Amino acid sequence: MAKETPALRHNGMIPYPEQKDYWLPYVYDIDDVRGKIPYNFCMNEIQAAVGIAQLRRVDHMNNLRRKLAAKLIDGLMNTKELQMPYEPEGFKHVYHLFPVLYDDPESKADVSDLIRTLHDDFSIKTVPLYPPVYWFTLYQKRGYKKGLCPVAEKMYNKLFNLPFTPAITEEQADYMIESVRAVVKKLKNR
Hints:
With 190 residues, the protein is mostly helical. The chain has seven helices and five strands; from the N terminus they run αββααββαααβα. The strands form two sheets. It has a three-stranded antiparallel β-sheet, covered by helices on one side.
C-alpha cells in the first residue's frame, strides 16, 4: 500500500522504471491502482483560501506572463526552425505555458537533442508537456495504441516548453533566448 499511496494521491502519476533522461519517455507515467482509475481530490480549505487570494492578482500575473511571452517571441521569431505561440487578432493569450515547436528539416537532430543540449550545456531544464493521453500505461492497458492520433503525435514529438513563470527576470529571459538560439545553431551542424 505504501508504494501505491503516491499514485492514489495524484491522478495515478508514477515514475517510469529505469528512466534515464528526465523527459523520456515522459516526466511521469499514469497507471491505475489495483485496477481502479485514480482521481485528484487534493485541494483543502487552506489551498482554497490561497486560491481566492490569488484570483485578486490574476490580471497582474497574466500581464507579467504576456510581457515575458512578448520578449521571448521577439527574441526567437527570426529563428526559422522554431515556431512560437501566437495570439490571433481579437484574442488575449494568457500563456499558461510557453510551448515551442522545433522543426529543422536540414538537421538530423530532434527535439530530444534540443532538450538535452539546453540542459547539459546551459542548465535550462525544459520538457515537452502533455503527450497524447493514450500513451500512458493506464490507457495502454485498456487497448489504446500509439498511432491513434498521428498528427497529435507528430506535433508532440516536435514540442518543448521553455521555463515560464512571471518570476523570470529580464536577464533570465535574455539568457534563455541566447541559449535557445545557440542550441538551434549547434544542432544545425548534426
